[in-house]
Design brief:
Elements: E1 10-16, E2 31-32, E3 35-36, H1 37-47, E4 53-58, H2 61-69, E5 73-76, H3 88-101, E6 106-112, H4 121-132, E7 138-145, E8 150-153, E9 156-159, E10 176-187, H5 188-194, E11 202-206, H6 218-231, E12 241-244, E13 256-257, E14 263-264, H7 269-280, E15 285-289, H8 294-303, E16 306-309, H9 314-324, E17 332-336, H10 342-347, E18 350-353, H11 359-364, E19 367-368, H12 377-404
Parallel strand pairs: 1-4, 1-6, 4-5, 7-11, 12-15, 12-17, 15-16, 17-18, 18-19
Antiparallel strand pairs: 2-3, 6-10, 7-10, 8-9, 13-14
C-alpha cells in the first residue's frame, strides 16, 4: 500500500462510467484500437504500481460486465446520480461511501475518465507520489497551451489571454495549462470536505500531447482509432492461442488463376517458421476461412495446424473451438484483414489486423501489425506471442531465485 506521511488508507482509482451518452451513444463501451474505452481506463489504473484498488461506478450492466472482465470492482450507481445533470463529484463520493461500507478506506482518490483512452500508468504513479508525499493536495493532468484565445464581444472578437496589438513570440510567453480531463489525483479526506476536485494545493501533471485526447464526439473517436497504434504501442502479446484468417493474412490477398481454373496463392516461408515455433511452444493455432479452395487445407496441413474452411459463421466456430480446449477468449489473438473477421474480433481479447486491412477492421483492431499479409504478418504475431512467454518465464525465474536467496 502506498501512503504519505499524513495520508492513511488505500490508493483507490475510481472510474465513473454511466450508460447514457448523447454525443456518442454507448461511448464507454466504444472501442479504440480494439479495446472498449472502459477497458482501457481500467487497464491504465491497474498498470499503475501505486494503485491498490480499481473501481468502476456505473448504472449500466454491460459496462459493469466489461469492467469486471478487465479487473475492476463495481459500485452500482443509483439512477439519481447517473443522469445528465449529475456531477462526477457526486458519483465519486457515493463510490467512496460504498467502499467504506465494504471496509475499504481511501487515503488517495485517483479519479479517471474513460473518455481519455491513452492514460499512461507512469503519469498516474508520478501524480500519486506527489500527493502521497504531502507536497500537493490535488494533481491533475494537463498539456502546455500556447494558443491565443478569443471570445465574442459586443464589438466583435476580443482577445482573452493576449493583447491583439502586441502578440509576443512563443519563446517570450509563459505557457498556460489545458486540462486533459484524463485524471485527477486527490487527497481523499480533503475531497470529502471540499466536495470538489480542486482544493488546497493544486499541481499539474504534464502529459504527452498524444495522451491528451478526450473523446466527446464521433470525430474524436475516429481520431483516437487513427492514432491508437502510436499513442499506445504494444510489444509482446500475452495470449494463449492464435487464430487467423487465411486470404490476406497467410497470403497477400491476390490469386493466380490458370486457364483450367486452378488457383495459386503466394505464402511466406517465414510465416511457416513462425507457426512451427508456436507449435513447438505448445500454443494452439487455428486457421478459419470462408474459402472452399483446397489450397487452404493444403497449406494448413503443411503447417501442421488445425483448419476450418468453407465457413458461413466464423465466430460460432471460433467460440466452439475455444470451448473445446477450455480457452478463455479474452486470452486469444485473432489475426484478420476483412469485414468477415469483425465478428471474431468482437469475441477475442486481442483482435489483430494486417496494415492493408479494410478500414473497419483497422478501426476495430487492438493492434495493427507492421508486417503485411503474405509477407510475414503471421511470423510477427508468433514472435510477439513467444516474446511474452519468454518474458514471463524470466520473471518467474527471477522471482524463484529471489525467494530462494537467504
Amino acid at each position: 500500500m502506498t501512503s504519505g506521511p499524513e495520508i492513511r488508507g488505500e490508493v483507490v482509482a475510481v472510474i465513473p462510467a454511466r450508460g447514457g451518452s448523447k454525443g456518442v451513444p454507448g461511448k464507454n463501451l466504444r472501442r479504440v484500437g480494439g479495446i472498449p474505452l472502459i477497458g482501457r481506463a481500467v487497464a491504465a489504473a491497474r498498470g499503475a504500481a501505486r494503485v491498490d484498488r480499481v473501481v468502476v461506478s456505473t448504472d449500466d450492466a454491460e459496462i459493469a460486465a466489461v469492467a469486471r472482465e478487465w479487473g475492476a470492482e463495481i459500485v452500482d450507481r443509483p439512477a439519481a446520480l447517473a443522469g445528465d445533470t449529475a456531477s462526477s463529484e457526486a458519483a465519486l463520493v457515493h463510490a467512496l461511501d460504498a467502499l467504506r461500507v465494504r471496509g475499504v478506506e481511501a487515503g488517495i482518490l485517483v479519479f479517471l475518465q474513460a473518455t481519455s483512452p491513452f492514460i499512461d500508468p507512469a503519469d498516474l504513479d508520478d501524480a500519486i507520489g506527489r500527493v502521497a508525499a504531502g507536497s500537493e493536495d490535488v494533481v491533475f493532468s494537463a498539456v502546455e497551451s500556447w494558443g491565443f484565445l478569443w471570445r465574442h464581444g459586443g464589438d466583435g472578437m476580443t482577445g482573452i489571454n493576449h493583447d491583439p496589438a502586441a502578440r509576443p513570440r512563443r519563446q517570450d510567453r509563459t505557457p498556460e495549462y489545458l486540462e486533459t480531463g484524463a485524471f485527477y489525483v486527490l487527497d481523499a479526506a480533503g475531497f470529502r470536505v471540499a466536495w470538489h476536485r480542486f482544493f488546497g494545493r493544486t499541481g499539474v501533471a504534464l502529459v504527452e500531447e498524444r495522451h491528451a485526447l478526450e473523446i466527446d464526439t464521433v470525430e474524436q473517436l475516429r481520431l483516437a482509432n487513427a492514432i491508437a497504434p502510436l499513442a499506445s504501442p504494444v510489444g509482446a502479446l500475452d495470449v494463449d492461442a492464435l487464430v487467423t484468417d487465411f486470404d490476406g493474412v497467410h497470403t497477400d490477398d491476390s490469386v493466380l488463376v490458370g486457364q483450367d481454373g486452378s488457383e495459386y496463392v503466394r505464402v511466406d516461408r517465414g510465416d511457416g517458421m513462425g507457426v512451427a515455433l508456436l507449435r513447438a511452444a505448445g500454443v494452439p493455432t487455428l486457421i478459419l476461412s470462408t474459402e472452399t479452395n483446397p489450397v487452404v487445407g493444403a497449406r494448413a496441413a503443411k503447417l501442421g495446424v488445425e483448419v476450418r474452411q468453407g465457413l458461413g459463421d466464423k465466430a460460432a466456430v471460433l467460440r466452439a473451438w475455444a470451448a473445446e480446449r477450455s480457452l478463455d477468449l479474452d486470452r486469444v489473438a485473432y489475426l484478420g484483414n476483412d469485414v468477415n473477421d469483425l465478428a471474431c474480433f468482437d469475441l477475442v481479447g486481442w483482435p489483430l489486423a494486417v496494415p492493408e486491412a479494410h478500414p473497419r477492421v483497422l478501426a476495430a483492431a487492438r493492434l495493427v501489425l507492421g508486417s503485411s499479409g503474405g509477407h510475414g504478418a503471421v511470423r510477427e504475431a508468433a514472435e510477439r506471442i513467444l516474446a511474452a512467454r519468454e518474458r514471463a518465464a524470466r520473471a518467474s525465474t527471477t522471482a524463484n531465485t529471489t525467494r530462494s536467496t537467504p
